[in-house]
Design brief:
This protein has about 375 residues and is α/β, with parallel strands linked by helices. The chain contains 13 helices and 9 strands. A 9-stranded mixed sheet has the order 3-2-1-4-5-6-7-8-9, with helices on both faces.
Length: about 375
């Protein structure tokens, strides 16, 4: 029987695939009815949100609001700058500047005190222009900028620059807007190794997942790592690790097996319902968010996971062991909280903007959405 965590109410629990199948069937019937009625009117949106409550009654659904209230720190005038979270994004190249910004600004909107971005020189000025709130470090290099004989010394220089900061951070997010330049990925691999040695939590998203899929040793056996794959990224992970194709019917057991084979790394499988597993438990967050699938929502999620995971890690020293001698996995807690908050913010943004909803609209709803669940005062 698998080990379970029980320190928080209704979280997490081990489930059978039959429960997952039943939940999926309910969702399919609801979606068929909605499509038959047609449209995305306000009433339809409300009906969809109400419909998800049926799934929330299953033993697969996480008690996300309780977790959010438990791990979100109270605002305290006696705390100083940085104690509510210092997050760093490793990503951003000349082609992709929006993704690292979305992740970094989302962390601040949720309540982190400081948000850094380590990016290439070409991306730095652009990212700085988006917001003065973000601290930008133009230290990463791409291969087109350097000669072959310089690569070793420049990689060492990049690592030295990041290492000066890394132990100050509560969590790293690796991958948003990173690109796939081979030299840049080699440098980021060294950064990830250093973060692991320093026991810094790491959230891997976007092109960071491309890097990790081809070099599983970067996260294998590291319990403070989180992978946040979308449909295609998850498919590549399953093919690489389990040597098979994705099975929708056995989604729960497959995710358990995948996380277990990677050594207990937490995986947040994004989809209509987000599934989260560390190889011991599976949790689902299925609250309806938005039918608008604008790009950048995954970047919001990665920044959010970083903040909530770091907050959960802060709570762990004070967590009391239950009768089974286990404590909650803070990375799983962070994933559940981030997934639920993003869905709530996306729902609010869609109510206001409908088809015109953009990632920036969702980001603007993060603070109010968290406030509705965890009032600051």
């Amino acid at each position: 029987m698998r080990q379970q965590y029980h320190a928080l109410p209704a979280f997490p629990i081990t489930v059978s695939p039959n429960c997952m199948l039943a939940s999926s069937a309910i969702l399919r019937r609801q979606q068929f009815l909605i499509r038959s009625l047609g449209g995305y009117s306000n009433q339809t949106h409300v009906e969809r949100m109400q419909g998800t409550k049926v799934v929330a009654g299953t033993n697969l659904e996480a008690d996300a609001e309780t977790i959010l209230r438990t791990i979100t720190p109270k605002l305290d005038p006696n705390r100083h700058k940085g104690q509510a979270g210092k997050i760093a994004i490793i990503g951003g190249c000349r082609e992709y500047t929006g993704a690292p910004y979305f992740a970094a600004i989302s962390a601040l909107k949720i309540g982190a005190d400081l948000s850094h971005v380590f990016c290439t020189k070409d991306a730095a000025t652009v990212i700085k222009s988006y917001s003065p709130e973000i601290i930008v470090h133009p230290v990463l290099e791409e291969s087109y900028n350097i000669r072959e004989e310089q690569k070793r010394s420049i990689c060492a220089k990049v690592l030295a620059e990041v290492s000066k900061w890394i132990e100050r951070f509560d969590c790293l997010v690796v991958g948003p807007g990173l690109g796939r330049d081979p030299f840049l990925l080699d440098c980021v691999s060294e950064i990830m190794k250093h973060a692991r040695q320093s026991k810094i939590p790491v959230v891997v998203d976007g092109d960071g997942l491309f890097l990790v899929t081809n070099n599983l040793d970067l996260v294998s056996g590291y319990c403070l790592a989180v992978l946040t794959p979308n449909v295609n990224e998850y498919k590549r992970l399953v093919q690489k690790v389990l040597n098979c194709e994705v099975s929708d019917e056995g989604a729960t057991e497959e995710l358990l097996s995948l996380a277990s084979r990677i050594g207990g790394t937490t995986i947040l499988r994004k989809g209509k319902s987000d599934l989260i597993s560390d190889g011991k438990t599976v949790n689902m967050v299925s609250t309806f968010g938005s039918p608008r699938r604008c790009g950048g929502q995954g970047d919001i999620l990665s920044g959010s996971v970083a903040v909530f995971s770091s907050w959960a890690c802060q709570q762990m020293p004070a967590a009391k062991e239950d009768s089974s001698g286990s404590t909650p996995n803070p990375m799983v807690l962070g994933c559940i909280a981030a997934s639920a908050l993003l869905r709530k913010a996306a729902s609010v943004a869609f109510e206001n903007q409908k088809r015109g909803t953009l990632t920036t609209d969702i980001i603007e709803c993060l603070g109010k959405s968290l406030e509705d669940i965890c009032p600051a005062i």
